[in-house]
């Protein structure tokens, strides 16, 4: 097992602090080793557990990372000075002008030309955009530094 990297060294190098992280120490170790292509069976031997347990720890860790990313995206959307709700049924080609107009009103500069903005919206919206059609309400935020965020919006689902 000499070719297996030292997990504590990997965590130190990445700046892992269990006190401020959403991952447990064990989850961080498993993820660090998996990111270095260490097999689950090898990790299980190293940690004195089963491969099934390592698989479960890894799945939980990846879900925690996904949720943490979602939380950050939510916080960014909340503090973005420009927020544009794009309703389902909107043509993707109409999105840039709506975003640019809202940014002009707020005095914020967007870091993307129209084609790049449409691609960013399409990529980040995932299944909520098909071809040129917006299928789900989207919330497009633009931060003061021009960063664009895209999230599905639940605004239309709220009771009046």
SSE order and pairing:
Layout lengths: L6 H8 L10 H11 L4 H8 L3 H29 L2 E5 L8 H12 L7 H12 L3 E2 L2 E2 L3 E5 L5 E5 L8
Antiparallel strand pairs: 1-4, 2-3, 4-5
Keywords:
single chain; 160 residues; mainly alpha; 12% strand; elongated; disordered C terminus
- Average pLDDT value? 90
Provide the number of structural domains. Answer: 2
Counting DSSP E segments of at least 2 residues, the number of strands comes to: 5
In whole angstroms, how far apart are the ends? 61 Å
What is the subunit arrangement here?
single chain
Could you give a short account of the major beta sheet? 3 strands, antiparallel
Order of helices and strands: HHHHEHHEEEE
The shape is elongated
* Count of helical regions: 6
User: Which class do the helix and strand fractions yield?
Assistant: mainly alpha
Give the proportion of residues in helices: 40-55%
Radius of gyration of CA atoms, rounded to a whole number? 21 Å
Strand content: 5-15%
Write a structural description:
Mean pLDDT is 90; it is low at 156-160. This protein has helices spanning 7-14, 25-35, 40-47, 51-79, 95-106, 114-125, and strands at 82-86, 129-130, 133-134, 138-142, 148-152. The strands form two sheets. The chain has a three-stranded antiparallel beta sheet with strand order 1-4-5, with helices on both faces. A two-stranded antiparallel sheet has the order 2-3. The chain starts with 6 loop residues before the first helix and ends in an 8-residue tail after the last strand. 21% of the residues are buried. The chain is built from six helices and five strands, in the order ααααβααββββ. By secondary structure, the protein is mainly α. It folds into two domains: 7-75, no CATH class; 80-157, no CATH class.
């Amino acid at each position: 097992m000499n070719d297996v990297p030292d997990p504590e060294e990997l965590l130190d190098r990445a700046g892992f602090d269990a006190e401020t992280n959403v991952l447990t120490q064990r989850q961080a170790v498993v993820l660090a080793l998996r990111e270095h292509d260490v097999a689950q069976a090898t990790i299980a031997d190293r940690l004195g557990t089963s491969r099934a347990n390592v698989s479960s720890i890894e799945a939980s860790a990846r879900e925690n990372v996904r949720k943490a990313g979602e939380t950050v995206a939510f916080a960014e959307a909340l503090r973005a000075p420009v927020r544009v709700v794009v309703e389902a049924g909107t043509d993707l080609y109409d999105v840039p002008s709506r975003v640019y107009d809202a940014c002009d009103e707020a005095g914020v500069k967007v870091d993307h030309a129209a084609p790049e903005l449409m691609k960013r919206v399409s990529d980040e919206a995932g299944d909520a955009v098909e071809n040129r059609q917006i299928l789900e309400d989207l919330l497009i935020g633009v931060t003061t530094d021009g960063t664009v965020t895209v999230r599905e919006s639940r605004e239309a689902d709220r009771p009046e």
